[in-house]
Amino acid sequence: MSLPPWCSRVTCVPGALWCRRVLFVPGPVVILGYVRLLRSRSVLTLWVGQALSVFGDRLYAMAVMWIAFEESGAFAMGLVAIAESLPYIVLGTVGRRIVGRFGSLKALAAVDVVRAGLVAALPLAWTHLGLAGALALVLVAGFAGAVFDPNLGALTPELVEKRDVQAVSGLMDLSGRIARIAGPGAAGLLLAVMPMTTLFWLDGATFLVSAAALALLGRRGPAVRRDRASAPTRIPAQARMLLRGRPDTAVAIAIHGVGIAAHTVALALPAFITLQLGGGAGTYGAALAATGAGALAANGLAGNLRLPPNLPAFYCLAWAVSGAALVAIALAGSVPALLALSVLLGAVNPFVQVALVTHLSGFPPAHRLRLMSVDLTVIRTAGTASMLFVPALAAHRPSLAFAVAGLGLVGVGLFGAVLAVRWAPAGPVPGQEPVGTGASGRARGR
């Protein structure tokens, strides 16, 4: 892994005729890479809008599960989880034409307005229409998310120069990491002073902020690269053709599904802490905090270090490292060891996310949209299916479950890396662009 130009300096020896380049990675440097991007009005507008939206989503996720349990019991929680994921699976499988019709920032702004109304109305639906009415709203909101998420992922790289795609991917990942940490705590504080329904209204408000940001970017017009100009009128290509043409990409997406499925074993972490370490809720909270801290600390590196050119192979290897961390957790004999391994596990996550998004961003816009939609379908399917049985099986022998899941992920990740190397294109692929590798550049839309 090499470093971008701003992670080096030239040192000249007095009286000598030569200079040497010294590599360094100071802590503030990786943050400055993000600060430089945020000087672009387009990137700043999008990031603020999406950061608030993701934060609202964390409030919504907690509130909808709690109200489902409170009103209809644990069974309703499972139905809500399925209703949220099913639209991604359906549209990703047979709805490519529908997804392709929302390929503009203005269209996504309209989708966010609809989502704002849906989440704000959810408590009323549960009160007056019961479980069936609430599930219907959750399902519709899921379909809105299923057209929004891949289109936003496909449009975001167009706001920056190609060399900045990796950095903007890391920046968007950072907002999600922060929301995962701050969301539950903020929800707890808010619930101490206001009713549960307020969380839904706040989430609706964040969707409106996101809609305003997207509408503003849409009005600016040429804030995206010229190669996107005709994209909204094009229907995303068939996934089968794309994946046959790039088998290394197919491997990476498949490994993503395996990784998500394997990591559902983490739901058995409370049982592991209780049975193997004799800990309690405090230890569980500390492990979650350590995982979040590791992810935050590594995000700046993932977004700004120059990653290897074969991103699918690197991606598969990163999942193998994540699997090794799961195996090590199974062998952890103390709380400090668990916390250290949790930091490592969290640190891998940004590299996984940024590497895949950066790789997919190199495809032409219509192909990029289709591949991102397929990826969402794969991980939603894998996550939903594994949630049905993995936690229940792992609860009785959690250490064995962590070991099996980890070893399986290590094996699949290494095998995937070998395939990605073997099936990598021999030369430049027509229509595909080399994108951000951590080097600096000027963002568009100033």
What would you note in describing this structure?
- This protein has helices at residues 27-38, 41-72, 74-94, 96-100, 105-155, 165-191, 197-219, 239-245, 247-262, 269-277, 281-304, 311-331, 335-361, 365-387, 390-394, 398-422; strands at residues 8-12, 19-23.
- It has 3 domains: 1-39, no CATH class; 40-234, MFS general substrate transporter like domains (Growth Hormone, Chain: A, Up-down Bundle), CATH 1.20.1250.20; 236-438, Up-down Bundle (Growth Hormone, Chain: A), CATH 1.20.1250.
- Helix 1 (27-38) packs across helix 11 and helix 6 (165-191) packs across helix 13 (335-361).
- It contains 16 helices and 2 strands.
- Strands 1-2 form a two-stranded antiparallel ribbon.
- It is mainly α.
Write the layout of secondary structure elements.
Elements lengths: L7 E5 L6 E5 L3 H12 L2 H32 L1 H21 L1 H5 L4 H51 L9 H27 L5 H23 L19 H7 L1 H16 L6 H9 L3 H24 L6 H21 L3 H27 L3 H23 L2 H5 L3 H25 L24
Antiparallel strand pairs: 1-2
**CATH H-level homologous superfamily name of the largest domain:** MFS general substrate transporter like domains
Helix content: over 70%
Q: In percent terms, what proportion of residues is strand?
A: under 5%
What's the architecture of the largest domain in CATH terms?
Answer: Up-down Bundle
How many helices does DSSP assign? 16
Distance between the termini: 31 Å
